[in-house]
Design brief:
- By secondary structure, the chain is α/β, with parallel strands linked by helices.
- It is built from seven helices and eleven strands.
- The chain has a single domain (2-194, 222-260), classed as Stationary-phase Survival Protein Sure Homolog, Chain: A (3-Layer(aba) Sandwich).
- The chain has helices at residues 14-27, 71-82, 109-119, 133-136, 143-159, 229-234, 253-260, and strands at 2-6, 32-38, 57-61, 64-67, 90-97, 124-129, 170-175, 186-188, 200-205, 211-216, 238-243.
- The mean pLDDT is 97.
- It catalyses: a ribonucleoside 5'-phosphate + H2O = a ribonucleoside + phosphate.
Length: 261
């Protein structure tokens, strides 16, 4: 098996090392793991692509490349440059430092990398490690992802639903903010929504009096709807959410057609 891995925390992020270990477990001794990751952190870029300017790419070591672009750029670079059009069998994105549950999904470059792979017709899984007081107290805050990640990927490859339609299914996996031994197992969960301010902008002034804005995230340890991804994560479960890039509100089409007739 040939696996392409990427992330949004950057080529030197510790979560990428965790993902590389998972990918090598899945690929096996006869497989290949190729890394194309952003040269610098790209958190919050979503499914952005560098459409209006070129992307520099450099080989750091065999099968390991850094690109000055987003995770989606890295997936495109991996397919069309590094692998010269030979698509990988699987794309893994992560392991993100911090959760991509709930509304965070919409901003996540980790999700963006997996989404681009799905649009290219390649099976893809995004993985993130929910952080909190318990993980920060561990020697390895990625402990849950490191010890359970391979089993989750194998379960999805063996038993997951992989569609062949235009907007193919990809998966969003979030590991709970606890140690590996306390992690309860898997739960399939929909994307949730945490009530609260979410992201906001906070003004600050430089010594010269110029105003700058910092984008601030909202509280992360607020559960969403019962059974949704952030909620089951906070209850100690690994959440698995099937996703597709089609943003149409299909449940409203018939009603809206009737209203506008």
């Amino acid at each position: 098996m040939r696996i392409l891995i990427t992330n949004d925390d950057g080529i030197n992020a510790p979560g990428l090392e965790v993902l590389q270990s998972i990918a090598h477990d899945i690929a096996g001794p006869d497989g290949q793991v190729w890394t194309v990751a952003p040269a610098f952190e790209q958190s919050g870029v979503g499914h952005c692509i560098s459409y209006t300017h070129p992307t520099m790419i450099a080989e750091l070591s065999p099968r390991r490349f850094a690109a000055e672009g987003s995770p989606a750029d890295c997936v495109l670079a991996g397919i069309y440059d590094v692998l010269q059009g030979g698509k990988p069998d699987l794309v893994l994105s992560g392991v993100n430092r911090g959760n991509n549950s709930g509304e965070n999904t919409l901003y996540s470059g980790t999700i963006g990398g997996a989404m681009e792979a799905a649009l290219q017709g390649i099976p893809a899984i995004a993985m993130s490690q929910f952080m909190g007081p318990e993980t920060e107290a561990l020697d390895d805050p990625f402990q849950s992802a490191r010890q359970h990640g391979t089993a989750v990927v194998r379960a999805l490859l063996d038993k997951g639903i992989w569609t062949q339609d235009a907007y193919r299914i990809f998966y969003n996996v979030n590991f709970p903010p606890i140690g590996a031994a306390a992690t309860k197992g898997l739960k399939v969960a929909p994307q949730g929504f945490r009530q609260g301010p979410g992201f906001s902008a906070e003004p600050h002034f430089s010594p010269s009096g110029r105003k700058f804005l910092w984008i601030k995230g909202g509280p992360q340890h607020i559960p969403g709807e019962p059974g949704s991804d952030a909620t089951v994560n906070l209850e100690g479960w690994i959440s698995v959410t099937p996703m597709r890039a089609d943003l149409t509100a299909h449940d409203l089409l018939a009603d809206l057609t009737a209203r506008l007739a």
